[in-house]
Every structure is written in structure tokens, then in C-alpha cells.
Amino acid sequence: MLNSNCVLSAIAFSGLLLGASEPSPHSVRATGVIRAVRSQTILVPRIEGLGGNLTLATLAENGALVSPGDSLATFDRANEIKLLLEAQTKFDDLGHQIEQQRATNNSNAEKRIADLQQAQADLKKAEIESRKGPVLSAIDQQKNQVKLEDSRAHVVSLEKSSKFRDGKLSLTVRSFLELVLRNSTDVNLTRLDVYTANASILAAKAPYDPVVGLGFNTLRSVSPSVSQISGASTLSTLTQNSTVQYQQLLSTGQTVSAGYTASRSSDNSAFNLLNPSLFSTFSFTAFQPLLQDRSRIQVRGPLEIARTQLTVTSRTGEAHIADLLATAAVEYWSAVQARDNVKVLQQTLDLAQKSYARDKQALDLGALAQLDIYQSESQVAGRKRDLIQADYTYKANVDSLRRLMGADLTPALRAVEIVLEDDPASLPSKTTVLPYEEALSAAMRVRPELDAAHRAVTVDEINAKIARNLLLPRLDLSVQVQSVGLGGNQVAIAGPLGITTPAMSGGIGESLGQLFSVNTPSYGAGLQLTLPFRSSAARAQLAQVLVNRTRDQYNERQAQEQIAQDVRSALNSIDLADATVQAAIVARDLAQKNVDAEQQKYELGTVTAFELLDSQTQLATSESALLGAHVGYQQAYVAYQRATWTLLDGLGMVLETPKVN
């Protein structure tokens, strides 16, 4: 290393002769300073190395005449070579240890995966055995149930152990999205929409619900008689009525109703034949629309709409959950970028501290001016500041991931350290990226947004049928059938010829016997026609439905256009990210070479510390740019998977809709 403050001057004298053989005829005395006619400033290398002070082997004499290319000083290289060999040996040993630990980790990971797969297979086998319950004995059923529970517990335990190691939660993008899908509050809130839509189906079935009505009333009346035929001077009557009604709309379109009425009456009249008397009536009525609502579209339509709306809600929920997962994946890669950015800034800080340590030693030895140390100190302070900011940025990103996967709800989970294992430089294979037309065709087939938009048009078609049906005249056919029965206690009656009919006991059995024998039937039919002359409400409803249908058709087309834009934008982003990665790799390599060159120049004293630190800053910028390019490619690939609906397929996951009745 060279010190710009240590200067050797090689001076050449010409035209000056001292000690001449013959005295000059005239002597002139002069005072002043003799200056060199020609001089060259040479920077002396620093006298320190990685192992401490260097041993000076040779040094040019002071004031010697030198030429360009001459060696002024040489140092003993034996100690440096020894340190180099020791460092290389230590580096090789550490590399070997890393490879061994990596192989051990891979072996353990493969074993955990194999154990988990075997446990999952055992769980499936136990589930199959549990389905044989109806044909097995109670003991065998209990054994199978115990095996099933043990298998489930084993699978859960292995899943946890594969993620938690040494008290840390190790995450890949796949395991992170699995936790988001299971525990995210936003995902679970979205899944609840399906249950709300299912409640609408239940409400739409209400017209088909049967209705049963039960009634009973009693009345005691006492009144004076004004006629001899009343049978008593004061007439006392007790009347009791009981009713049972049933009504239901059939799926075939008819409305049927049936009713039974029993009336019991007793009084103190002398002219009653039955006292008390029990009068029973059974009636049946069927109602059938012949024009308007003949197909029961006004009842079936809302049910079909509710079922279609359930599918729309489910598909819309799938799209929203996929958006949440895509956003979560982008945040995951942002956290990975923040993690690796900390490493990059740590490396730049280490380089700045090494430069500062050299300058500090040179300052202590007097080979560096006091004012020149501030540049190295300011670089170290600035890079410490950047490292602190990057570290807190990474912590904020990890906290965001913790919230997304529900790991922030308890103190124990909040205390778990999260380790991100993915390397952003491990880019997905380009063979998985389809050309535009193929990717667009695949997206059009499977994107749930397009299916939801198409089903919304189907709902409008059903509403249009309902509105057109309301414009028809109403012609209704009704059919009625009725049967009655009479029973009670017969009163003794004296006939005109002196023949007395004895009293006889009767009751509900006698009344029901006459009722079901249909000895006294009643039946009939009727038609009722209702002609609407304006139907303003129905016409307005139809107009609104047609407008909504047109709007939903445009929404469907808009969904198609959005999908096409998503696919094209994702492919463009991947192409841009790929080109950025290639350019960033070249820039990083050149920046590394520049740092190596500047380091050598600095050790030889041909450049200053500022130029060396500037090259290190450029290298850090290039490293950060390359890291951003890799993360940008990962995020662009996530957008491509979302656009083509392959995000979950690529992770080996299936998004299931909650099952509803």
C-alpha cells in the first residue's frame, strides 16, 4: 500500500561543478536555496498487511537517481503467503462443513417428507376402513375409529414438526400460503359469504313449505226462549269446535289444501234428536294456474336464482381468495428481498469497516493525515444507518407475514422466530410459461371471474322469464271435494203410534264412519279469469331486468378483456424481469471486478480511499439491483400464475368451496 504523504524526491543536478582544478579568475559569493531542475513524486506503499506490519526487504537509497519502472522497495512475502494458505485451508474446511450440514439437512427434510407421506397414506387407509362401519362389528368399528384418530394426530404432528425446528418457524412460499389459506382472517371472512348465499336458497324454498293449522274454541250461551219450539223456557247451549288445516304447494305446480272440522253441540231443548251431537266435515281443495304462473316460474325462479347466486358467490369468493394469496405471495417475496438486502448492506458495512481499520492504523503510524480519516468514518456511519433501516424494514415485512398467516394472535406465536428459506435466485423454469394465445385460452376456461359473470347473465334471463310471465292473464282452476258425518247420543223418542225409540249412545266413531263412507258428499269446480289491462309494475320490472341483463353482458365482456390484459401484462412482466435479471448479473459482475481492481490500485497507492469506497458503493447498488431483479421475476411469475389460474396448482393445493345443503 502507498502513502501519499510519504514522498521521496529524486533530484537531478546538471551544469554545476564543485571543486574545480583551476581557480576562477573571479570569485562570486551567493546565498539562497538550491532547487532541482527536474523532480518526480513517488508514493511509498503502506507498511501494513492483513497479518500486521510488513517486513521491508529492500529499499532504494535516499536521493538515488531512478527511472520509471525501477523498484523502490520490496517486502517479505513469506508471512503473507502463510496467512493466505491458512485462510484458504480454513475456507475449504468451512465449505466442507457447510456441505455436510446441507446434506444432513436435506436428508432430514427428505425423511420428514417421507414420514409425512406415509402418515397421510395411513390416514387415508384408516378413513377407508372407517367407512366399513355398517358391515363390521362394534369392536372392529371402535378399533378403526381409534386408528383413524391416531393417524390424524400423527399427520398433524408431522406437519408441525416439518415447519417448526429448534423453536423457529421455517417457511417456504408453499408452506406460507398453506398457512394463509387456513388461518387468514380475510380468507375465512370470504368463505362465510357462501353460507350467506346458502341461506338465500333456504329462504327461496319457503313457498314449498307445508302449513299445518290447529284450532279449538268453545262457547256457552244461555238465553230465554220466545217460542214453544225452542224446547225449553230458558235455552242453554254448549258449542265446541275443533279444526285441523293442511296446505302445501307441490313441486308440480298445484296448491292443495285439506281440512277437518269437528263441531260438538249440546243443549236442554226437548226437541233434539241427538244430544249432544257431533258434526264432522272433511274438505279437499286443489288449485292450478292455467296461464300466468302455470309452470310456477314465479316460485321456481327465485329458487333457481338463489342456487345460481350461490355458485356466483362461490366463484367470486374463489377469485377473491386467489387475489389474497397472490398478494400474500408478493409480500412473502418482498420479505425475502428485505432479508437479503440486510445481507448485502452487512457486506458493504464489513468492507467499509476494513477500509476504516486500515486508515486508522495508518493514522496511528503517522502515515495518514488526521483530516483524511473522516471520509472512512462517515462511510461506516452511513452504512450502519442503512443497515439499521433495512433490518427494521425486514422486521416489519415479517410482522406482515405473521398477520397474514394468523401467527400474531397469542404471545407464544408472536415470540416464534420466522425463517424464510426460499432463495430468490432460484427462478422457475421458463418452460412453464406458455405463449400468449395458449395462456389466454387456458385462463378463459378456468378463471372463476368469467364463470361468475356468465352466471350473472343466467340470473338475468330467469328474472326476464318471471317478468314476462307476470304480463300474462291469470286463469285459475279450482276443484273442491267435501264429506260430512253426524254422530251423538240419540234421545228416546215416543212415536205417534205409541212406539218409543229407546235412547242410544254414539260419538266420534259414528261421525267418522259416516264421514269416510262418503254417504253425503259435496264436490265442485271453478274457473277464475283475471285480465291485466296495464300491468305497469310488470312492464317496469321487465325493462329493469333487460337493462340489468345488458349490463351483465358488458360485465362479462369486461371480465374477458381484464383476463386478456392480466395474461398479457403478466407475460410482459416476466419478459421484462428476465431481461432485467440478465442485465443485473452483468452489472454486478462488472462492479465486482471494478472493486477488485480498485482494491489492488488502493494497495499500490494509485487511488485514494474515496475511489475505493465509491466502487464498493457501486457494488452494493449492483447487488441490491440484482436482488430486486430476482424478486421482481418471482413476483411477476406469481402474477402470471394468478392470471392463468395456476397459482394453487403450482403449489400442489386445491381451493375447496365449503359444502352447504
Describe the structure.
There is one protein chain. The chain is of the alpha+beta class and 661 residues long. The chain folds into three domains: 81-165; 185-200 and 316-459 and 540-650, Up-down Bundle (Outer membrane efflux proteins (OEP)), CATH 1.20.1600.10; 206-294 and 474-530, no CATH class. It has helices at 78-130, 138-163, 173-183, 185-204, 297-364, 373-404, 411-415, 436-446, 448-470, 508-517, 536-604, 609-643, 647-650; strands at 3-9, 41-44, 48-49, 52-53, 56-59, 73-75, 164-165, 168-171, 211-224, 234-249, 255-267, 274-289, 417-420, 474-490, 493-494, 500-501, 521-530. The strands form six sheets. A six-stranded antiparallel β-sheet has the order 9-10-11-12-14-17. β15 and β16 (500-501) form a beta hairpin. The two termini are 82 Å apart.
Which terms summarize this structure?
661 residues; alpha+beta; Outer membrane efflux proteins (OEP); 3 domains; six-stranded antiparallel beta sheet; three-stranded mixed beta sheet; 13 helices; 18% strand; elongated; disordered N terminus
